[in-house]
């Protein structure tokens, strides 16, 4: 024996309201959609008069109910039984069950959303050539059908509000919702007699109208407007470039219309992540909604559309670079983070950054292209700290240096040879500069030996090696240089000290057997103060001065100050102050 499933309507309505639809407000959208589809259907059938949808809110009906009337195709009694009373049945699918292209609806559940705000739905309908029918559906799952009063072909749906949902049916709310969802519909819609449809899509009405639309609906005056056109998705629209920076991690949503009915105001997935600098408003005839009609169905067409829009945005940037570089520079000032993120995997964007984005160098702000033209290669410091340490010394020795420490910059520089094998890139490390330091002559070296060993004794416990060299600029007294290996070793030792026995054992097994070079304090013998310090006769004062130079070099290079360093800075400062202030202790 075969039986038929029973459906508990209350359960279904509960499911829809809590899990499918974001808010009961969507009932206006579903009703509008049915009315527009009915008009579309009649326009396909015969030579029809202009379609019209009129909504009367509870302000006009006066009895708390809402009525929406269309002059669409209407239903016969047989269709009423089949379509209105069967959940999931829709006239908008073809024999194979695919959504028919010309309609907005497809799932056969839209009318149910009215039960989110109504206890009772009355549908008064007539198909041309058939008698009028009155169908009444109740929230508890019952419905009845009887002959209705005479009327023109078409349908009117009346909602009797549920207790507590009356506010969804009042004029102001209904007007706001009909405008939100339906203002671009190709069929005229009125609410309590006032027209809410605009006719033309705003991005087709010229640049000025398009900008005014962005100001009104998106709340900003765009930096620029890019026209969008993706024929395979039947998509037209505009991408509005944001006039202020946004966090690349926050995903911007886009305003999407499907067949001129608003899908949602913050749809994700329409643009690739890198294009966070644009907000789009688009209308598509081919993209599909999810059943909630609040998001786009993620299929291969959406993917192809995303790529096509990405191409159009990329094309805009490239065009700007050739036709209006100053405007491009302005754009980059606002959105450089996004463009740089994109440059990490997109050659065109990489070229754009190389040509147009000014980076910090030790000879001022210049683009990578200019830098390369001047210095022959791209020499960079990988962190801002390293750059600060090296910039002045490198400049004094006529070595150009780029600060690769800002977000993405080092990766961008490293990726450039992939674009053009002619481009040479070199990472400069603090210790690389040591080779440019000149050794002292033998006599001076000999003379400084006692000073050096005293200084070394003083700094041994801090794990630092003291050397004296001559280098430019002369006004720089001392540099603290840490190689990458030494830097790693410092971190490693700190971890080993904190680790428990088991983990410590593992770390020991990993440790390099050879001790790495120690950090160096390089004193500059070209600096007059350093010369005087090396010539001091007083051992206590020498020690204080060496410690002060060490501390100053740490600070200059933005090195981390360990507790031992802080203690040393403190004693040397107070010691020197003690020496400098005249008078006897009392
Ligand atoms: N105003 C109307 N005029 C004519 N037929 C209508 C009207 N409203 C509903 N119908 C009929 O009732 C059927 C069911 O409507 P319902 O809104 O539940 O689903 P749908 O519009 O087919 O799909 P979706 O769930 O995607 O909205 C429709 O397919 C349509 O045939």
UniProtKB/TrEMBL annotation:
Organism domain of life: Bacteria
SUPFAM superfamilies: ATPase domain of HSP90 chaperone/DNA topoisomerase II/histidine kinase, Ribosomal protein S5 domain 2-like
Keyword line: ATP-binding, Chaperone, Nucleotide-binding, Stress response
Domain Histidine kinase/HSP90-like ATPase: 19-165
Protein name (record): Heat shock protein 90
Keyword Chaperone tagged: yes
Single GO term (MF): ATP-dependent protein folding chaperone
Family in the record: Belongs to the heat shock protein 90 family.
Residues reported in the UniProt entry to bind ATP: 30, 34, 70, 155
Keyword Oxidoreductase among UniProt keywords: no
């Amino acid at each position: 024996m075969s039986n038929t499933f029973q459906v508990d309507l209350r359960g279904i309505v509960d499911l829809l309201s809590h899990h499918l639809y974001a808010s009961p407000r969507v009932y206006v959208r579903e009703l509008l959609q049915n009315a527009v589809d009915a008009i579309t259907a009649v326009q396909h059938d015969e030579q029809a008069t202009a379609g019209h949808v009129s909504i009367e809110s509870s302000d006009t009906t006066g009895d708390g109910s809402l009525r929406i009337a269309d002059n669409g195709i209407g239903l016969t009694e047989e269709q009423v039984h089949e379509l209105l009373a069967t959940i999931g049945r829709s006239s908008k699918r073809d024999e194979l069950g695919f959504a028919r292209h010309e309609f907005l609806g497809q799932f056969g559940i839209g009318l149910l959303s009215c039960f989110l705000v109504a206890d009772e739905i009355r549908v008064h309908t007539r198909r041309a050539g058939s008698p009028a029918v009155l169908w009444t559906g109740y929230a508890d799952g019952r419905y009845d059908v009887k002959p209705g009063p005479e009327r023109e072909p078409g349908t009117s749906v009346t909602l009797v509000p549920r207790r507590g949902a009356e506010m969804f049916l009042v004029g102001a709310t209904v007007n706001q919702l009909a405008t939100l969802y339906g203002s671009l519909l190709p069929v005229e819609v009125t609410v309590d007699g006032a027209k809410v449809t605009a006719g033309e899509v705003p991005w087709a009405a010229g640049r000025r109208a398009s900008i005014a639309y962005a100001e009104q609906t998106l709340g900003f005056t765009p930096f620029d407007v890019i026209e969008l056109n993706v024929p395979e998705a039947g998509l037209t629209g505009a991408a509005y470039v944001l006039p202020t920076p946004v966090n690349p991690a926050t995903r911007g949503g886009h305003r999407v219309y499907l067949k001129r009915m608003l899908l949602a105001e913050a749809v994700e997935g329409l643009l690739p992540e890198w294009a966070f600098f644009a907000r789009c408003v688009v209308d598509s005839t081919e993209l599909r909604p999810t059943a909630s009609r609040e998001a786009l169905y993620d299929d291969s067409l959406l993917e192809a559309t995303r790529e096509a829009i990405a191409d159009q945005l990329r094309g805009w940037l490239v065009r700007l670079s050739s036709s209006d570089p100053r405007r491009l520079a302005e754009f980059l000032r606002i959105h450089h983070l996004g463009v740089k993120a994109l440059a990490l995997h997109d050659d065109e964007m990489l070229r754009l950054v190389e040509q147009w984005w000014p980076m910090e160098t030790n000879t001022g702000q210049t683009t990578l292209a200019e830098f390369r033209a001047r210095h022959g290669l791209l020499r960079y410091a990988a962190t801002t700290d390293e750059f600060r340490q090296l910039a002045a010394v490198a400049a004094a020795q006529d070595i150009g240096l780029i600060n690769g420490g800002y977000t993405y910059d080092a990766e961008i520089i490293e990726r450039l040879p992939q674009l053009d094998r002619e481009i040479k890139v070199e990472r400069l490390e603090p210790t690389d500069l040591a080779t440019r330091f000149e050794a002292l002559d033998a006599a001076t070296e000999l003379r400084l030996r006692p000073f050096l060993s005293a200084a070394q004794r003083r700094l041994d416990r801090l794990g630092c090696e003291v050397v004296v060299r001559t280098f430019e600029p002369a006004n720089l007294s001392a540099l603290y240089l840490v190689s990458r290996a030494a830097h790693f070793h410092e971190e490693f030792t700190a971890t080993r000290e904190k680790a428990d026995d088991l983990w410590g054992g593992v770390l020991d097994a990993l440790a390099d057997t050879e001790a790495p070079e120690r950090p160096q304090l390089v004193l500059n013998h070209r600096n007059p103060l350093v010369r005087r310090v090396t010539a001091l006769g007083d051992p206590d004062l020498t020690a204080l001065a060496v410690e002060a130079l060490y501390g100053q070099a740490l600070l200059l290079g933005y090195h981390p100050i360990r507790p031992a360093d802080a203690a040393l800075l403190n004693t040397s400062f107070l010691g020197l102050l003690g020496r400098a202030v005249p008078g006897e202790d009392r």
